[in-house]
Structures are given as C-alpha cells and as structure tokens.
Specification:
31% strand, alpha+beta, Aminopeptidase, 2 helices, 3-stranded antiparallel beta sheet
Length: 84
C-alpha cells in the first residue's frame, strides 16, 4: 500500500510559535550560532500576534508537524522606500 502524506501551507497562528521557534533553533544549531539565539517562543508570540505585529509568517505542515516556516516583515529604506 502506498503511503500518502498531506502537505499544508497556511498563515501562522499563535499556536505555531513553538514550532517556528524550534525551526529557528535548528537553523541556529546548523550554522553553529546557537549561542547568538536570543528570541524565545514567547517573544515570537508577542512580536507577531499582539496589537501591532512586527512580522507575519507562513508555516508548512506535514501531517501534524511544522516542517517549514517563512517569516517576513516590512522595512523602509531611506534610499529605496518600502521593502519586504
């Protein structure tokens, strides 16, 4: 019998903060920069899902596990104007 896997991509919600953090931490370990990691799941929650969010995110789930995340934010360049 062939196993099928369900991939889901959607906008992140508050309950995804721990999974997003886990991926960030995994990346920090991979690039040997774990000691520079300062963000916490709580800070992700506060920064991304409170009154004035400073970022947005999409997550990819395979079955019930978050396997990917895209975090993006607006910036403004005095030279170029609006940017993501």
């Amino acid at each position: 019998m062939k196993e099928t896997k369900s991939i889901l991509i959607r906008e992140a919600v508050k309950n995804d903060c721990q999974g997003i953090y886990d991926l960030i931490k995994e990346l920090a370990i991979f690039v040997k920069a774990e000691s520079r990691l300062e963000i916490t799941p709580r800070q992700l929650l506060e920064d991304g899902f409170e009154a004035l969010p400073s970022f947005k995110a999409f997550i990819t789930k395979n079955q019930n596990e978050i396997v990917g995340a895209a975090v993006f934010y607006k910036k403004h360049s005095t030279w170029k104007g609006k940017a993501i």
